[in-house]
């Protein structure tokens, strides 16, 4: 067990606590029922220390943090005590709480995309945080905003300040959030899942920044996360929560070395881990090998991409942006090929091109013998019936107004002439295949958990016995333990039905568990492609190596060997995420109530 | 430059849409069983007189040709009949009402100030009342204020404007004798009279529509108040007033403005019932009159004009969107 | 003449066959007093437009146009008396020397327009000529097919004149008709017989600003808003026996909602005390007025007027048999129909074709029965015709009042084993169907008010075989040579007394064949303000006489 010399916690452990939570209990009154979210939680956070609150969704970790800020909904009953440097926060009057919020406690939230107001510029929102606590002149605020933005490692702070949230990448936004959180020199930073929504390399950068700030500004950090990898990366102390109760509380190193509670052990187990890296010296990049037109067995591959280019119209006229650039790839029948890369690498676009949802500018896409770009309407229809797609967010891909059964049966009624009773039998069969009880048939998506919904989405995707399944980040919206089970399911279903699969993911650990082959996409190009074990254990391209290095590892011992990447990642210029789909509210989508006659 | 291109592309789309609408309107009315010539044939109507009237009005042509003549009139104007009694309808001629002896274009233009006065005033009033009530209801959700506002808005939504108008006239016009009960005074002639005559129609329209906006605003506000960025704003230590009034309201207004634009667009085409009740000579009254007398050219003209307003409103809403929501700008 | 006088008066949104509170007694004739001069009268109008062009107007002689435009003759309408044709511009109601084919009128001496110019026979001729122009079609055009050469004539704008109207001197006008026509004195009371000075004729503008010959002239015209009339200083009361010209000013408020109109008149405040409504009072308001003593006093209900009837298509299947048609005369429940049309205030039971208020009417009942019908008699007649059960289609307009009436008929006939299927269509389709060539219906309900108060107007348009199809209103499709001959005889008769006797004969003769079932003589109710005097509504036409209305002064 090695502890980094930069970690201050041993030296300062004797100070009086900055934040002390004692006997905290939170319950919610819902329709007369009392639901207890946190039971009798007690822990302390000291200045300069990172305390991680760990647990799965619903374990009460965010509720604890919100209780400290006094931001729980009115239905919450809070008891116990939370003091910040001796000041009681529970039941404190609004004026005091307002001074604390943003003034003494800075907060970062999970989804920087939604946590920032889409209609105001970054500069405006950061400046507002400053003015809320320190009334000062317009120019002073503007200068402070720029200073803060560069403090958090944003290049060109002036441009960032002028930008609206949708114009920046997730990493940039999270940095901006941090800038906002530290704008008034808080003594405590609450970071609620600060990296969950981000790509791995970006995630690493943000964690570095948090560590760095903690040291430089001598802040305490209350880190809320479900990701043991992240915990291992930055935490000094760990509090494990389950169903609102603290099950284990220990120093990070100790916890990872010898977890005492069964639940902690289970949490550590379900985290997908990467194989040990044989990361000697990354070889210079090679031109990606062109895949053979046919496999050795002489069977045509299920999917064959040749020199595919996909372009989007650019911001300015006449300069299309190449989202996918000269990609060649094949998927053999019954195999699972993983496409990995960060946001904007073009992996989702490639998936869409494969499904025939975006036109290909050059090259050919052949799926089950049909050339997608040249297919007749009828061929396309047949082709679509042989294609299943599972999206990242099952909540938005399932029609909320239809029952699960109806959603699954939809492709059946579109592409087959099965009678209703036959359809019903098939739906039951599919529900069984995805390990859901058939009684869920008549439920609506909102009555189900995220994992169940994703199972439904899978059932729908395989309803027509597809030749090819495209799974676009199917687990990234789910809790880790759920994630693992969905991956297992996907693999078992694939074995059972024998379809080929393109698995799109940014999560290397997941890929390792699942894929036969891996293709790494970087800025629209395949930089490396090969068998999963080879690519993930002995990457040849430096980008692959960097991706692997950036992935958080749920083991502080492994972390100590990864010192080199923090600096490289921090300097890496974060590219603005490529945004093809602009948000557009067409009036038709807006709510339109019944009009009275005038 | 980009904006210019956007506008020109949209204008082209608008023209195409209007052409399609005009074609459909034309076809629908021409295919109806009623014969507009019959109405201006007089009594007794002999087949010969009917044929004469039909020829003069241009209804003896195949309808496709009538339609082309209609389109031609928009560009170049039209002349009906010949000799000393010939009627000329100057470009842009959207038809000629033989019943009223006037070009449809002129008739519509004459009515615009009335309808626009009613519509714009009422729209601003209901936007103000509706949004304010919606915001208060959402923020004070579940309280007596919320319940009162929502009950009131349920009544407003379901109240027929004719009835509300009539009750308004009876109460404020006759019983309390506070406001004039009918007629329109041009703004240019008598601004006070203009305002005074419009107060009641505005209130009636605002009452029934504010209800819709209150419900819409409340729903949107509740949704937005659940957004992450509201939590962020609160976590920054902002006052609730600022959280609601700035962070939430700006986002709430986006869908509200859409609905508002379209509502205003369709209301500018004439508030048929309200204009009738208050005897306001606006487009709605004109349309009602045209329909009652099967005045085809006028019906087609007003239909097209209303369609134009709605399309225009759509377009403007999209532009305003760009201002309100940076995500759609540029 | 047309079925909907409401349309003729441009009282749009007419509640044709308006109904009322069954218990209410008609106010006796309205308020009568000596004419006081002065004041500003307001007339509330549902229509948004008044067309003052005499060629295009279908106005009755006693309403709006009559205030501004004089014609060769006009109507003298008095409470309780049949309408009379009286001289207006002319010195008499016309002279004929050849049994009704040639008519001569002489203008009174010293007649002038509002601008002081003399009214000449040439102006009258020009006014008639311009009514033939297709550009100005839409008015009452009975003269068009009667005058020699009228069918071919296309109006003065192409340069031609109509030779059959002669003006031997500035005060004499002679008409040459194709056939003898005894009611010609009535025809020349129509708007087209108002003088139009050629120099002032702008066909595009004349509808808003005609050259006045009557006691009032158009001062301002705002389409959809109001029309204001002021006194014509050059009108000479001595030349005009029918117009009393009481108010100094008359304002037509246009586009007034009928319900709001009623409410204003019930409230009777301010200027509304000097106002009356041009439209019928709706049934809902009648009930309210019943509760209000002041308003009740100011409600005027006409005597029984226009005829509403059930037409039996005499060219269809079993209805060809006169016995079947006579059976239906007994089978119909007139009481139920009356209730469906608003009760006693909506109309009185009818038995004749010529309506009350028309000179020469003889009251009789060929099919006497209880108001709710005589089921036994009907069955007996059906039996004689060899019919036990019948299936008939009733074409009805699809609005609620009309459907209610259709159902009243349906239930009545059901009692004698006649199954009626109601076929609802909208107003235009109804008009097209009943006036078209095919006549694909067995029964239909209609009502009729003539355009001029002669029995001719009751009979000829509805029962002459020339009026079947082609836009005509012989919707029973009744063709009886004997009746056609009678009609021709009566039409040609220039002695009013003899003509009236012939029409009465035709009336009975037609009903012997039972092509229609007379149902009710409808009544209309109107409301006026408390200062309005001399406001009365005769049985024909069942509209207020604008020419005599005056305002109480002081």
Question: Can you characterise this structure?
Answer:
The complex is a heterotrimer of chains A (598), B (330) and C (554). Chain A is α/β, with parallel strands linked by helices and 598 residues long. Chain A contains 24 helices and 20 strands. In chain A, helix 9 links the parallel strand 7 and strand 8. By secondary structure, chain B is mainly alpha-helical. The radius of gyration of chain B is 24 Å and the shape is globular. The mean pLDDT of chain B is 85. Chain C has 554 residues and is of the alpha+beta class. Chain C has helices spanning 5-8, 64-68, 121-130, 184-187, 258-267, 283-290, 293-297, 322-331, 334-340, 375-384, 400-414, 427-435, 455-463, 481-492, 496-513, and strands at 40-44, 73-76, 84-87, 95-96, 102-106, 165-169, 172-176, 216-222, 226-231, 249-253, 275-277, 299-301, 307-312, 347-349, 390-397, 418-425, 443-448, 516-522, 525-527, 532-533, 550-551. In chain C, the strands form six sheets. In chain C, strands 14-18-13-17-15-16 form a six-stranded mixed sheet. The longest helix of chain C has 18 residues, at 496-513. Chain C is globular, with a radius of gyration of 23 Å. In chain C, 61% of the residues are buried. Chains in contact: A-B, B-C. At the B-C interface, helix 3, helix 5, helix 7 and helix 12 of B face helix 5 and helix 12 of C.
Percent range of helical residues of chain C: 10-25%
Distance between the termini of chain C: 42 Å
- Secondary structure class of chain A reads alpha/beta
Biggest sheet of chain A: strands side by side, in what order?
6-7-8-3-9-10
Q: How many beta-strand runs of chain C? A: 21
CATH class of the domain at 1-104 and 189-194 and 219-269 in chain A: Alpha Beta
Reported by name, the CATH topology of the domain at 1-104 and 189-194 and 219-269 in chain A is Rossmann fold
Overall form of chain C: globular
Keywords:
heterotrimer; A: 598 residues; alpha/beta; Rossmann fold; 6-stranded mixed sheet; 22% strand; disordered N terminus; B: 330 residues; mainly alpha; MetI-like fold; two-stranded antiparallel ribbon; 13 helices; 4 strands
What is the strand and helix layout of this fold?
The complex is a heterotrimer of chains A (598), B (330) and C (554).
Chain A: H1 9-12, E1 19-30, E2 33-45, E3 50-54, H2 61-69, E4 76-84, E5 87-88, H3 94-100, E6 105-108, H4 112-115, H5 122-133, H6 138-151, H7 157-162, H8 170-181, E7 188-192, H9 200-217, E8 220-225, H10 228-234, E9 237-242, E10 245-251, H11 252-257, H12 262-270, E11 303-312, E12 321-331, E13 336-340, H13 347-354, E14 362-367, E15 370-371, H14 377-385, E16 387-390, H15 394-397, H16 404-415, H17 420-433, H18 450-461, E17 468-472, H19 480-497, E18 500-505, H20 508-514, E19 517-522, E20 525-531, H21 532-537, H22 542-550, H23 556-560, H24 563-571
Parallel strand pairs in A: 3-8, 3-9, 6-7, 7-8, 13-18, 13-19, 16-17, 17-18
Antiparallel strand pairs in A: 1-2, 1-4, 4-5, 9-10, 11-12, 11-14, 14-15, 19-20
Helix pairs in contact in A: 5-6, 5-8, 6-8, 8-9, 9-22, 9-24, 16-17, 16-18, 17-18, 18-19
Chain B: H1 2-31, H2 36-39, H3 47-57, H4 63-76, E1 78-80, E2 87-89, E3 96-97, E4 102-103, H5 104-139, H6 144-158, H7 161-175, H8 191-225, H9 228-235, H10 240-268, H11 272-277, H12 283-292, H13 296-324
Antiparallel strand pairs in B: 1-2, 3-4
Helix pairs in contact in B: 1-13, 5-6, 5-8, 5-10, 6-8, 7-8, 8-10, 9-10, 10-13, 12-13
Chain C: H1 5-8, E1 40-44, H2 64-68, E2 73-76, E3 84-87, E4 95-96, E5 102-106, H3 121-130, E6 165-169, E7 172-176, H4 184-187, E8 216-222, E9 226-231, E10 249-253, H5 258-267, E11 275-277, H6 283-290, H7 293-297, E12 299-301, E13 307-312, H8 322-331, H9 334-340, E14 347-349, H10 375-384, E15 390-397, H11 400-414, E16 418-425, H12 427-435, E17 443-448, H13 455-463, H14 481-492, H15 496-513, E18 516-522, E19 525-527, E20 532-533, E21 550-551
Parallel strand pairs in C: 1-10, 1-11, 15-16, 15-17
Antiparallel strand pairs in C: 2-3, 4-5, 5-7, 6-7, 8-9, 9-10, 12-19, 13-17, 13-18, 14-18, 20-21
């Amino acid at each position: 067990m090695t502890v980094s010399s930069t970690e201050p916690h041993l030296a300062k452990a004797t100070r009086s606590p900055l934040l002390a939570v004692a006997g905290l209990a939170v319950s919610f009154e819902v329709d007369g029922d009392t639901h207890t979210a946190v039971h009798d939680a007690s822990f302390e956070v000291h200045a300069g220390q990172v305390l991680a609150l760990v647990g799965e969704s619903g374990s009460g970790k965010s509720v604890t943090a919100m209780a400290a800020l006094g931001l729980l909904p009115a239905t919450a009953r809070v008891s116990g005590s939370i003091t910040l440097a001796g000041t009681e926060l529970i039941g404190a009057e609004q004026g005091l709480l307002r001074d604390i919020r943003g003034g003494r406690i800075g907060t970062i939230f999970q989804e920087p995309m939604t946590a920032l107001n889409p209609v105001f510029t970054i500069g405006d929102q950061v400046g507002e945080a400053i003015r809320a606590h320190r009334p000062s002149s317009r120019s002073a605020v503007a200068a402070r905003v720029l200073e803060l933005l560069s403090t958090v490692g944003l290049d060109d702070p002036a441009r960032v300040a002028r930008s609206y949230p949708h114009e920046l990448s997730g990493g940039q936004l999270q940095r901006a959030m941090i800038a906002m959180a530290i704008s008034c020199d808080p003594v405590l930073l609450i970071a609620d899942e600060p990296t969950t929504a981000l790509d791995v390399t970006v995630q690493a950068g943000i964690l570095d920044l948090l560590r760095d700030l903690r040291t430089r500004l001598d802040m305490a950090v209350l880190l809320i996360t479900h990701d043991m990898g992240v915990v291992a990366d930055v935490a000094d102390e760990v509090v494990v929560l389950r169903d609102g109760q603290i099950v284990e509380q220990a120093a990070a190193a100790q916890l990872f070395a010898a977890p005492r509670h069964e639940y902690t052990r289970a949490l550590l187990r379900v985290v997908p881990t990467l194989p040990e890296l044989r990361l000697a010296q990354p070889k210079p990049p090679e031109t990606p090998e062109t895949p053979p037109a046919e496999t050795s067995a002489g069977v045509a591959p299920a999917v064959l991409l040749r020199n595919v280019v996909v372009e989007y119209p650019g911001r300015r006229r006449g300069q299309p942006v190449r989202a996918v650039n000269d990609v060649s790839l094949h998927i053999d029948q019954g195999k699972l090929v993983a496409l990995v890369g960060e946001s904007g690498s073009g992996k989702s676009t490639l998936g869409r091109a494969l499904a025939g949802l975006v036109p290909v500018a050059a090259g050919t896409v052949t799926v089950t013998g049909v050339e997608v770009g040249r297919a007749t309407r009828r061929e396309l229809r047949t082709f679509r019936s042989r294609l299943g797609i599972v999206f990242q967010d099952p909540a938005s891909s399932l029609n909320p107004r239809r029952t699960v059964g109806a959603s699954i049966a939809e492709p059946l009624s579109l592409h087959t002439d099965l009678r209703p009773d036959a359809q019903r039998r098939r739906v039951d069969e599919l529900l069984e295949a995805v390990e859901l009880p058939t009684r869920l048939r008549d439920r609506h998506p909102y009555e189900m958990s995220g994992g169940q919904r994703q199972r439904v989405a899978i059932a729908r995707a395989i309803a027509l016995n597809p030749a090819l399944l495209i799974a676009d980040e199917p687990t990234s919206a789910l809790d880790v333990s759920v994630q693992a089970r969905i991956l297992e399911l996907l693999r078992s279903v694939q074995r059972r039905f024998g379809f080929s699969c393109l698995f799109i993911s940014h999560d290397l650990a997941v890929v390792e568990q699942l894929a036969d082959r891996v293709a790494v996409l970087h800025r629209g190009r395949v930089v490396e492609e090969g068998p999963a074990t080879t690519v993930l254990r002995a990457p040849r391209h430096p980008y692959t190596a960097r991706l692997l290095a950036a992935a958080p590892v749920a083991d502080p011992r492994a972390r100590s060997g990864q010192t080199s990447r923090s600096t490289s990642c921090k300097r890496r210029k974060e590219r603005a995420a490529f945004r093809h789909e602009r948000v557009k509210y067409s009036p038709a989508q807006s709510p339109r109530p019944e009009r009275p006659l005038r | 430059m980009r904006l210019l291109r956007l506008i020109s592309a949209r204008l082209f789309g608008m023209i195409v849409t209007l052409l399609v609408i005009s074609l459909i309107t034309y076809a629908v009315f021409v295919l109806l069983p009623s014969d507009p010539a019959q109405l201006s044939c007089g009594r007794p109507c002999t087949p010969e007189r009917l044929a004469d009237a039909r020829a003069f009005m241009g209804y003896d042509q195949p309808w496709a040709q009538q339609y082309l003549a209609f389109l031609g009139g928009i560009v170049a104007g039209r002349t009906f009949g010949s000799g000393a009694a010939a009627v000329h309808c100057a470009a842009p001629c959207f038809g000629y009402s033989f019943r009223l002896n006037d070009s449809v274009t002129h008739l519509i233009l004459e009515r615009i100030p009335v309808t626009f006065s009613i519509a714009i005033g009422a729209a601003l009033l209901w936007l103000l009342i509706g949004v304010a009530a919606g915001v208060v209801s959402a923020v004070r959700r579940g309280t007596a204020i919320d319940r009162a506002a929502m009950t009131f808005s349920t009544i407003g939504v379901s109240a027929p404007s004719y009835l509300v108008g009539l009750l308004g006239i009876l109460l404020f016009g006759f019983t309390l004798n506070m406001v004039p009960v009918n007629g329109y005074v041009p703004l240019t002639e008598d601004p006070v009279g203009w305002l005074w005559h419009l107060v009641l129609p505005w209130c009636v329209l605002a009452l029934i529509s504010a209800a819709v906006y209150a419900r819409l605003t409340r729903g949107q506000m509740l949704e937005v108040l659940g957004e992450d960025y509201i939590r962020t704003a609160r976590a920054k230590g902002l006052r609730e007033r600022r959280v609601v009034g700035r962070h939430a309201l700006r986002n709430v207004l986006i869908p509200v403005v859409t609905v508002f634009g379209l509502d205003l667009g369709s209301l500018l085409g004439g508030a048929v019932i309200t204009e009738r009740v208050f005897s306001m000579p606006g487009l709605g009254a004109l349309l009602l009159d045209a329909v009652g007398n099967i005045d085809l050219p006028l019906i087609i003209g007003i239909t097209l004009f209303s369609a134009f307003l709605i399309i225009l409103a759509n377009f403007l809403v999209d532009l305003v969107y760009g201002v309100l929501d940076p995500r759609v700008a540029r | 003449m047309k079925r909907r006088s409401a349309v003729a008066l441009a009282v749009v949104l007419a509640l044709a066959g308006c109904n009322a509170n069954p218990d209410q007694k008609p106010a006796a004739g309205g308020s009568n007093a000596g004419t006081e001069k002065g004041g500003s009268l307001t007339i509330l109008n549902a229509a948004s437009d008044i067309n003052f062009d005499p060629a295009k107007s279908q106005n009755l002689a006693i309403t709006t146009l009559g205030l501004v435009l004089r014609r060769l003759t006009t109507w003298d309408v008095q409470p309780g008396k049949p309408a009379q044709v009286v001289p207006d511009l002319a010195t008499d109601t016309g002279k004929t020397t050849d049994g009704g084919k040639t008519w001569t009128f002489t203008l009174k001496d010293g007649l002038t327009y509002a601008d002081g110019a003399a009214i000449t026979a040439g102006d009258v001729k020009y006014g008639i000529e311009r009514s033939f122009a297709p550009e100005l079609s839409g008015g009452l055009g009975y003269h068009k097919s009667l005058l020699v050469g009228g069918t071919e004539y296309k109006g003065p704008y192409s340069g031609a004149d109509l030779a059959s109207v002669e003006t031997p001197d500035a005060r004499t006008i002679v008409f040459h008709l194709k056939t003898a026509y005894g009611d010609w004195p009535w025809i020349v009371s129509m708007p087209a017989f108002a003088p139009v000075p050629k120099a002032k004729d702008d066909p595009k503008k004349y509808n808003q600003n005609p050259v006045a010959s009557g006691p009032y002239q158009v001062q301002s015209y705002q389409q959809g808003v109001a029309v204001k009339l002021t006194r014509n200083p050059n009108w000479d009361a001595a030349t005009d026996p029918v117009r009393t010209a009481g108010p100094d000013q008359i304002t037509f408020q246009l586009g007034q909602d009928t319900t709001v109109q009623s409410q204003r008149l019930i409230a009777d405040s301010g200027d509304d005390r000097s106002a009356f409504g041009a439209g019928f009072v709706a049934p809902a308001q009648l009930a309210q007025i019943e509760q209000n003593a002041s308003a009740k006093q100011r409600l005027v209900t006409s005597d029984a007027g226009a005829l509403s009837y059930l037409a039996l298509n005499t060219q269809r299947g079993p209805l060809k048999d006169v016995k079947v048609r006579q059976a239906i005369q007994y089978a119909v429940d007139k009481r139920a129909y009356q209730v469906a049309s608003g009760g006693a205030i909506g109309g009185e039971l009818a038995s004749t074709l010529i309506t009350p208020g028309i000179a020469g009417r003889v009251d009789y009942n060929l099919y006497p029965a209880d108001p709710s019908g005589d089921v036994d008699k009907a069955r007996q007649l059906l039996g004689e015709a060899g019919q036990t059960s019948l299936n008939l289609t009733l074409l009805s307009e699809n609005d609620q009042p009309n459907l209610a009436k259709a159902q009243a008929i349906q239930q009545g006939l059901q009692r004698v084993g006649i199954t009626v299927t109601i076929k609802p269509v909208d107003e235009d389709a109804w008009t097209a169907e009943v006036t078209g060539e095919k006549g694909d219906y067995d029964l239909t309900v209609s009502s009729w008010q003539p355009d001029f108060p002669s029995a001719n107007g009751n009979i000829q348009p509805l029962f002459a075989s020339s009026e079947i199809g082609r836009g005509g209103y012989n919707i029973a499709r009744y063709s009886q040579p004997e009746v056609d001959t009678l009609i021709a005889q009566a039409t040609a008769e220039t002695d009013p007394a003899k003509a009236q006797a012939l029409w009465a004969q035709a009336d009975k003769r037609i009903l012997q064949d039972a092509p229609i079932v007379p149902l009710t003589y409808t009544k209309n109710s109107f409301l006026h303000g408390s200062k309005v005097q001399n406001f009365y509504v005769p049985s024909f036409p069942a509209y207020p006489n604008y020419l005599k209305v005056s305002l109480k002064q002081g």
